[in-house]
Design brief:
The structure is a single chain. The protein is built from 20 helices and twelve strands. With about 600 residues, it is an alpha/beta fold. It folds into two domains: about 5-320, ABC transporter type 1, transmembrane domain (ABC transporter transmembrane region fold, Up-down Bundle), CATH 1.20.1560.10; about 345-590, Rossmann fold. The strands form three sheets. A six-stranded mixed beta sheet has the order 6-9-10-3-11-12, with helices on both faces. It has a four-stranded antiparallel beta sheet with strand order 2-1-4-5, covered by helices on one side. Strands 7-8 form a two-stranded antiparallel sheet. It is elongated, with a radius of gyration of 36 Å. About 35% of the residues are buried.
Length: about 600
């Protein structure tokens, strides 16, 4: 849970304010026109007193019209200034939220995987939605109410003192009493709203998890369980909100108590002053108006304080994202060209977290153009190994070279364009098939896209679609199968024309026959490209030039398929388990005479 310390709020405020950018003029105008609006409103009760004292009681109808006309003019000006101030405040607060979301999203794009690992997906979504909305609401209230209320309060107190100093003492007592009450309530409410806000993350996480895994939920008939889990999160949020809002509502009865106490006291003592000739009827009437303004200003100011207290937690979370520095940055003079696809691991260690030892003492030398298989059990370090090649993570110890140059010396964009990775979790975006393919190369022609799809065996199903390459892909690729999605992602990676291509278990949803066709196409067409294939199936890697056998974060062996079968127990065991039933169902099998069925 985030706890904002004293002094930290002020720093957060200025850090957020600095993000307003080009909307600064609108913010200043909102403050200026709010001040003018308050000035007009404060003068209206004084004009009312003049109408009563110099017009009605003196029987001077001309002055009634004069001061009445003046009141109408001030009311019209107050309305005009209020409209302009509201528009400017809305522009400034909305602009601030736009800038915050834009800068957060831009900064997230620079994050290394290690940066992203420090934030949950639900947490980042909450920061860019609910948190920013809280800041927007708080800035709107600050520009309008936090300017209006103090000005109205100060001006009303000044006017009361000018009318009658003795009666103004009533306001001072009321202010102290209401201030203490509001302070206690606000302090208690702030803690509750912090809990409310943190509960949002749990609710969003529950929603995200359920929607993304809705097929699994339905397949296992777990709708009731998910409803119950979500219901608990929402119920807790509801209870916290009720408690927080109930506590906050105590401000209203406290204010009403003080307000009516002031009115009774003002009526009692004001009547005595009128009888004594020290106060006029018009002045007493205006003082009643001013006391209402003072108390309303205090109440609104208390609401602003609560809103600012609530938004301070949002500000803290937003600033965390804005100030997060990428763990990886380009060197001052990056290398902008890659000679070839050779890869050299030189005594490499890597840990996701300090001391975890995910990869240890990796020493590998891969020639450019080789086809390398990588196999091993779950958690053996296969994906971690290839993540270092495209510098998704940096090595903890040792050196990793691609094309004879340490990957940390390359321009990151150039490196990743030359080391093309098809990750385990394939993602497609909303748009046509061509739009998705051109993520690999935005300038690729349609014929180049078709050729990439032929190599990835994606053309087989694309040509059967009514709109072919103009077929729309729904968000996340939900309207294509897992195998189709994998093949489109492979084609997308090929369009980069890389020097190294890495398939991280990227054909797991493809049948064995198609998998074999993809590997054969790679072998014949991508002769100069280094190909690294991570797989769970021996059939996917047995045709590789050499195969890396991973075991518990280390390279257990690195050799050809034939030699590994003879000399490596882990590889032989995997091979025998997978082949003892005759291979995959879609792989042609030989009968006793050696003929293929």
């Amino acid at each position: 849970m985030i706890r904002v310390k004293k002094g930290r709020c002020k720093k957060l405020f200025w850090k957020i304010v600095r993000q307003i950018g080009k909307y600064k003029k609108a913010a200043v105008m909102a403050v200026v026109f709010t001040a003018l609006e308050v000035a007009m409103e404060v003068l209206i009760p004084y004009a009312t007193a003049l109408i009563i004292d110099r017009g009605i009681e003196a029987g001077d109808l001309g002055k009634v019209y004069t001061y009445g006309g003046l009141m109408v003019a001030m009311a019209a000006l107050s309305l005009t200034f209020g409209i302009i101030a509201g528009r400017c405040a809305s522009t400034a607060s909305t602009g601030l939220s736009y800038n915050l979301r834009d800068k957060m999203f831009t900064n997230i794009q620079t994050f290394a995987f290690s940066n992203i690992d420090r934030f949950s997906t639900a947490g980042l979504v909450t920061r860019m939605t609910t948190d920013v909305t809280n800041i927007q609401n708080a800035s709107m209230m600050t520009l309008r109410i936090a300017v209006r209320s103090p000005l109205m309060f100060i001006c009303s107190v000044i006017m009361c003192v000018l009318i009658n100093v003795e009666l103004s003492a009533i306001f001072l007592v009321a202010i102290v009493v209401l201030g203490v009450a509001v302070g206690v309530i606000t302090k208690k409410t702030y803690g509750l709203f912090i809990k409310v806000f943190n509960q949002y993350d749990d609710v969003n996480a529950s929603i995200q998890e359920n929607i993304s895994a809705i097929r699994v939920v339905k397949a296992f008939v777990r709708e009731k369980f998910e409803n119950k889990k979500y219901g608990k999160a929402v119920e807790k949020l509801y209870q916290l909100f009720v408690k927080a809002e109930t506590t906050l509502m105590l401000v209203t009865p406290a204010m009403m108590l003080v307000m009516y106490g002031c009115m009774i006291s003002l009526s009692w003592f004001g009547a005595k002053f009128i009888v004594a000739g020290d106060l006029t009827t018009g002045e007493l009437t205006s003082m009643f108006t001013y006391i209402m303004s003072i108390l309303m200003s205090l109440m609104m100011l208390s609401m602003v304080i609560v809103m600012i207290a609530m938004s301070s937690a949002s500000a803290e979370r937003i600033i965390e994202v804005l100030e997060e520095k990428p763990d990886m940055e380009n060197p001052e003079k990056p290398v902008m060209e890659m000679k070839d696809g050779s890869i050299d691991f030189e005594n490499v260690d890597f840990s996701y977290k300090k001391g975890s030892g995910d990869l240890r003492n990796i020493d590998l030398h891969i020639d450019s153009g080789e086809t390398i298989g990588v196999i091993g059990g779950t958690g053996s370090g296969k994906s971690s190994l290839i993540g270092l090649i495209s510098r998704l993570y940096d090595v903890s110890e040792g050196s990793l070279k691609v094309g004879g140059v340490d990957v940390r010396e390359y321009d990151i964009d150039m490196l990743r364009n030359n080391v093309s990775v098809v990750l385990q979790n394939n993602v497609l975006f909303s748009g046509t098939i061509l739009d998705n393919l051109r993520w690999g190369n935005e300038n690729a022609t349609e014929e180049e896209c078709r050729e990439a799809c032929r190599l990835a065996c994606a053309d087989e199903f694309i040509e059967k679609m009514p709109d072919k390459y103009e077929t729309m892909i729904e968000r996340g690729g939900s309207n294509v199968s897992g195998g189709q999605k994998q093949r489109l992602c492979i084609a997308r990676a090929l369009l980069k024309n890389p020097k190294v291509i890495i398939l991280d278990d990227s054909t797991s949803a493809v049948d064995t026959a198609t998998d074999k066709k993809i590997k054969e196409a790679f072998a014949s067409k991508l002769t100069g490209v280094t190909k690294i294939i991570i797989a769970q199936r021996v059939a996917s890697v047995e045709g590789a030039d050499r195969i890396i056998v991973m075991d518990d974060g280390t390279v257990n062996s690195f050799d050809t398929h034939e030699n590994l079968l003879k000399n490596n127990e882990i590889y032989r065991e995997i091979y025998e388990v997978q082949t003892k039933f005759g291979g995959d169902f879609d792989e042609p099998q030989a009968d006793s005479d050696g003929e293929v069925n």
